[in-house]
Amino acid sequence: MVTGSVQCMHTESAPATSRLPFLVAVCRPTGDIATDELNTLRMYGRLGDEDLEIMDLLDTDACEPETLNLQRDYSGVIITGSPFGFHGEDKSPEHQRVERRVRALAKRLIDQDFPTLGICFGLQALSLASGGKLVDGFGEDLQAPRISLTDDGHRDPLTAHAGPVFYSYTGHSQAVGILPKGASILATGDFCHVQMLRWGKNVYGTQFHPEITRKGMHIRINTYGDTYYPADQKAAVIARCDSADVLSANQLITRFVERYQRTA
């Protein structure tokens, strides 16, 4: 079991010899995908239960991002993907709550240049918080496209060892169309141009999903028929996803944790 949701602001600091946890801002309802997401973060981050603290942004009782003491209490923040998007007008209360909270959190993280890995929805939140624009027309269905490092990506300590070209699973309807202020492009795709950004020195966002493994993609394929692909094409989607080697993308989680994990 992972640690429970953050219900209120911390009142005590962790013992001096303990490792500070990574805060995971969960932007999706509980279920198989959310469980797989956290399990993969633990596996590739080599993190125990005590190394993760979960903030469920859908939970009405969870504390607000503005109350968090990031520098004191956490090694870094990971913002998950989400079935919610930033487009559309008819949004449920849960959708509105997630969007409001993730935007507020993203702004704080960029303002403080606090170690962050925003994944898909997380990248988009970071982009919107810094003046970027999302556009339709560059969405990607369930596949593993080729991703290429830019010159900045080759020099960045988090991405330099990924190789000039790697593959990672995707699934999104919108993408960053106007580059946010202060952001550098670390990785691009043949179709979706903005695949990875960095703000300052420590805030990262990926449009692709480094937290999805082959097993995890099967969970998503079984969940998203007629959403990200026509249900009658399921066998072809499985075949193309199974043929991809996404280990280099998964290992970005390892390098993020190794770079930023610190003690109290």
From TrEMBL:
Segments passing through the bilayer: none
One Pfam family named in its UniProt record: GATase
Domain of life: Bacteria
InterPro entries, sorted: ChyE-like, Class_I_gatase-like, GATASE
GO cellular component, one term: cytosol
Coiled coil: none
Domain Glutamine amidotransferase: 66-215
PANTHER family: GLUTAMINE AMIDOTRANSFERASE YLR126C-RELATED (PTHR42695:SF5)
Protein's name in the database: Glutamine amidotransferase domain-containing protein
